[in-house]
Amino acid sequence: MADTATTASAAAAASAASTSTDAPPFQLGKPRFQQTSFYGRFRHFLDIIDPRTLFVTERRLREAVQLLEDYKHGTLRPGVTNEQLWSAQKIKQAILHPDTNEKIFMPFRMSGYIPFGTPIVVGLLLPNQTLASTVFWQWLNQSHNACVNYANRNATKPSPASKFIQGYLGAVISAVSIAVGLNVLVQKANKFTPATRLLVQRFVPFPAVASANICNVVLMRYGELEEGIDVLDGDGNLVGSSKIAARHALLETALTRVVLPMPILVLPPIVMSMLEKTALLQARPRLLLPVQSLVCLAAFGLALPLAISLFPQMSEIETSQLEPEIAQATSSRTVVYNKGL
After folding, report:
1. Where is the sequence biased in composition, kind Low complexity (predicted)?
2. Please, what sign has the CA dihedral across residues 196, 200, 201, 202?
């Protein structure tokens, strides 16, 4: 029976391939684009954050899931193209959690990160903020980040709520402390002119958010450093659990979290400082907030796929760099591990 199902699945795949020449042959559960190059990873993550999947109806989601089930069991109807299969997989991965198969709340999906996060970025970059507004926007930003992290977590192993609360509180406290501290220092800097002080204040959110992101990653995933993470050989077989690979995974993720807010929180202040001098905005100050929102949206849309494309989702490391027991457990020169997002 298994051989029959496999043959039928292969036949269905061949049928799909023959009816679609634009899309690559479909592979269930595999990325559509090659992950060995930065461009391939960039195209892959553009699919993941595509905000159009937020508008997929319940009926379309059921159809996509059913299409993938038909492909898996070799009962795919004739005429289904590779493009349709890739589209169905994109929809399922954007909406349903891969481990629990439950729908992810829309604001916390990766595809909702930019639309729901942009208003927060605009709030972080508002000029002349009071102490209360600084605390509010930093708290809201880290709350949103924590919920996105939790909603897209690896749910194959149970994680205690205390770990989530610890990471959340650590991120909020570090972000608020750094933002408030830097703002106080800027206010007390008598050497700055009012214009310079305003410009410097606009860059305060970046170090606050970047440091909080690192704190969030370390605290939320500290268990990986203690227990290690799974490493696999070239055939996908489990080799063992490595603490060294866990350190590499956390370092790569932390670097991503530092790069991510850089264009979002650095480019808009530079662009806005130039745009504010134009005759159009000086004559129509009410346009400042809408223009700043568009600038932040563009920066966010560029920064997110660029940052998460820096490292492959499945990273590779030489076995000689890992624990001796890992190196002795496989003949492979390299092993792979899931870096996480």
Report:
1. 1-23
2. positive
Q: What is the mean pLDDT of residues 235-251?
A: 84
CA distances 24 to 10, 47, 57, 85, 152, Å, are 15, 15, 26, 11, 27
pTM: 0.75
CA 29: distance to chain centroid? 18
Domain end, chosen from 67, 96, 125, is at 96
Residue 322's pLDDT is: 86
Tokens of 148: 């996105």
Say yes or no: 68 and 141 in one domain: no
Give residues with Cβ within 8 angstroms of 284, minimum separation 6.
Answer: none
- Does residue 169 share a domain with residue 78? no
State the amino acid at position 172 in one-letter form.
Answer: V
Can you tell me the mean pLDDT for 299-320? 85
User: Is the predicted pLDDT of residue 280 greater than 80, yes or no?
Assistant: yes
> What is the extent of the structural domain holding 222?
107-338
Count structural domains, the chain.
Answer: 2
Q: Is the Cβ–Cβ distance between 326 and 231 less than 8 Å? A: yes
What's the pLDDT score for residue 63?
95
- Per-residue pLDDT tens over the stretch 31-51: 899 888 899 989 988 888 899
Are the C-beta atoms of 159 and 223 separated by less than 8 Å? Answer: yes
